[in-house]
Each structure stands twice: as structure tokens, then as C-alpha cells.
Known about the structure:
Blueprint: E1 4-9, E2 15-19, H1 20-26, E3 28-31, H2 38-49, E4 54-59, H3 67-71, E5 74-77, H4 82-95, E6 99-102, H5 108-123, E7 133-137, H6 153-169, E8 175-181, H7 189-192, E9 197-200, H8 206-216, E10 233-238, E11 242-250, H9 272-280, H10 299-307, H11 319-342, H12 351-364, H13 374-386, H14 397-407, H15 412-427, H16 434-441, H17 446-458, E12 463-466, E13 472-476, E14 481-482
Parallel strand pairs: 3-8, 3-9, 4-6, 4-7, 5-6, 7-8
Antiparallel strand pairs: 1-2, 1-11, 9-10, 10-11, 12-13, 13-14
Helix pairs in contact: 4-5, 4-10, 5-6, 11-12, 11-13, 12-13, 13-15, 13-16, 14-15, 15-16, 16-17
Amino acid sequence: MTIAIELGANPAGQPVRLDLEELLSTRLLVQGNSGSGKSHLLRRLLEQSAGHVQQAIIDPEGDFVGLAERFGHVVIDAERTQSELGRIAARIRRHRASVVFNLEGLDADAQMRSAAAFLNGLFDIERDYWFPMLVVVDEAQLFAPAGAAEISEEARRASLMAMTNLMCRGRKRGLAGVIATQRLAKLAKNVAAEASNFLMGRTFLDIDMARAADLLGMEKRQAESFRDLNTGSFVALGPALSRRPLPVKIGFVETGTRNGRPALMPLPDMESGAMQGLIFEDDGLPMPAPASRPAAPSADEVLEQLEHAVAPVAAEPDAEAAAAIEAEREALIEEIVHQFVADPDAPFRSAATLYPDFTVHCRVRRVGSRMPDLAEFTRRLAIARAGVEGAGGEGRDVEWRRAVEQAAGLPEEMQGVFLLIARAGMEGMPSPADEELARAYGSRSPSRGRWLLTYMEERGHLVCENDFRGRRVVRFPALGWKTAPGDPKGASATA
């Protein structure tokens, strides 16, 4: 039975299909500069073929972990011993589980060693388990470099041999290599030469354009056409694609990556003096400790997960199921954020320092590919630190939503502090002390709490006044609220 998956469309709008059975026998090479759409192309190929063939993705940047939630792939953390990886790879082939081998967080030398051990485990399985499998290697030039790099010779040789086995001898063992690279000139020739199907994207260097044109059988004068390709556009050639070079625009994908295209964002609206205070003020805090990675699941746990892995079934979820999944995802995110707030060391670490740990927790808890970005995490963390979720209560939700809307006009890290003061104003409680404001902001310095009030007052969000006893009263003109007098240097009733 011939299975053709749709990659995209040609300039005339006609679908361009890839013969999956032919690909299993002939292998595929994808080339394109950073930002040309290679990862998008690989994701389209993986999504369209997920229900037809077993898959293993060598993922150096953690871009493909989103496939686990949608298509049932098992995510394997690469930070394991060589023997563990060999046993896991053998189980993968025996049980025909689709997996994402996540190398994120390892240095280049460790990535090469881990990838070599994993590929060798897939390759050295008994003949009875030579089931068809797509083995997709993103950024293949990292694992099969054309020349020596700043890595140990032992790691380079092990990785290069494993990649050569995949592309040269893997077909008889059911392994179909799909490799993607930014530059053909950086990829070992004996690895690239084994591919019979090609998808060539945008590139600018003469040497890469010449090699791409040569692989596609194009004349040298046509090589410069690769400079004019748009993001997501490729030239296809090969027995599984087309007998003649064929332009193709890759179609849409269902899952997303954590590392999207960079977008411009406005700079902070802050006066020069305030900015200098943030930069030069010495609040006595020690340098933040490096973010620690949580302990990875044991090999036995991963093997057990593979034991019970089932083949993915691509089905459209109904509206109720989608709503339930979204509610569960939101609950998991809130739970993870509150874990950071409960950690004794976390309150005085910046959101940017905590964010890498947060993303790891999200992947371990299977939050999915749509994780909050740094700005959203900063906002959630600030509100959780201030302890103001659901502060409106029954009958006051409309009033509280007005406060939340006003807080949205402040930087994410200040929104929780504003809502903390607003809650005190809404309930007529004493205004929080400087120390409490600083703690909600993630600082130990009371002067930071005073600066926060000054910043909000200068922008019209609130008004600070002192009574005759020196106690502070904070008014919210837009909301009609006012706090009771509170000692700026003392304990606050809202603590």
C-alpha cells in the first residue's frame, strides 16, 4: 500500500506529496539557513506521518517536545548513562514507540556522546525488531561535522560513526534517516551523500548554493535562486518527492515550538534616573545561584513508560475535551508557579533566573507546547508572590477586574505589587509596609518597596499620602478605593 503525505503546495497551488514508503528506502536531506523553515518542515513531515510510521527525533534544542501531547510521543531526557540509553533504545524498537530524544541542556560534547549511544542502540537491535522507523536528526551538522571542532576527538568519532551507520546501513535495519542542516559545507560528505531525496531552502553562501545546485542537478547559474526563497519555501527532488526540481511551500502545522521567531517589543517606559537606580543600586543581594535541573526520571521509569506506549491516533478533540484539557493545563501551570513561591529561596530570585526551571517543570508535568513565555511567567509569579488570586470574592468580581485591568498597564513584575496594595484599598486594610512590597517584588530591600510606590504614583496609578503620625495612606482615584493608615516601616496587616 502506497502512503502519500501532503507536505505543501507548488506555485500553482497543487498539492506536493511525499511517498512515505519510498522515503523509508531512500532517506531525506533538508538544508536551509537559520530561519528558513527547516524545523517547520520537519514538524509538518512528522505530524503528517505520525499515524503511519514509528518516529524517533534527535532534538538538540527541545523544539519537538510538543509532539508528545498531541501525538503521544515519549520524551526521553538525554542526561543518562550510555547503558541506560542503550536499553531504552532497544525497548523503543521492540515496542514500536515514537519518541523525542531531548538533548537540551547538554554541552556539545555530551550531546554527541548521548546521540551516538542512542543511535547505536536503535541500530544494534535483533533482526526480529527491524520495524520501519523514521529517524529525524535536527541540526545534523552538530552530530556529523565535516571537520574537527572544539570537542573531543572521541566524541566526534563516535557521533560521526553512528550518523554514518544511520544513513549508510540503516535501511536494512528499517531505519530511514531524515537529516536537517543549516549548512551543507559543515555536514560530513559521506553522510549527506547517502540521501536520495532533497528539500533545499534559502541559503546565501556561494559554497552552500553550489553544493545544493549540484545535489539537485541544477546548472551553476541557477544556484543563486536559493537566495530568493522565502521562509518555508523549498526546492524538492528525489524518488519520494519529484523526478525534477519542484518548488514547494510547506503547509501548516498543528503543534508549535517554544522557540518562535523573534519579535520586536517596546522598551521599558522608565525615566533615566529610575533606570539608573535599577542598574546601579546595590541592594546587598548575592549573585543568584545557577538554575538547577530537577532530577530526571530513572531509566526504569522511562522503560516502563515505553512498555505501555501506544500508537498515536490523530483525532480531532471535541469542544468539551478541549476545554477540559485547557483547564487542566491552566491548573498545572498555577500549581507549578505556587511551588516556586513556596520555595524558601525562590522569593528573592528574579523571574528570569527562575524561568528555565519553570520550563523544565512544565515539560516534566506534561503542560504541553504552549507554555507561558517569560513575560507571562513574570506576571503570574508576581501575582502569586503578592497572594492576590481571587481577591475580589463573591459580589466584588467586577470591581476587582477593574483593578486587574489597571494593573495590566504596569510592567509584568510590578502587577502583583499593585494588586497587593489594591486589595488593601478595596478591603479598607492598612497599606502594606515597604518590606512587604519589596518581598512581593522579589527583593529584600525596603527601599525597593518605596521606589515601586514612587514609580506607580508618577504614572497616575495611585496617590500616596501621610497622616500626622507618619502613617501611609494609598488612594486609587480611578477605582475609588483608599487604604487605612499603615506604618511604612512596620508590619502590615495584610502580611
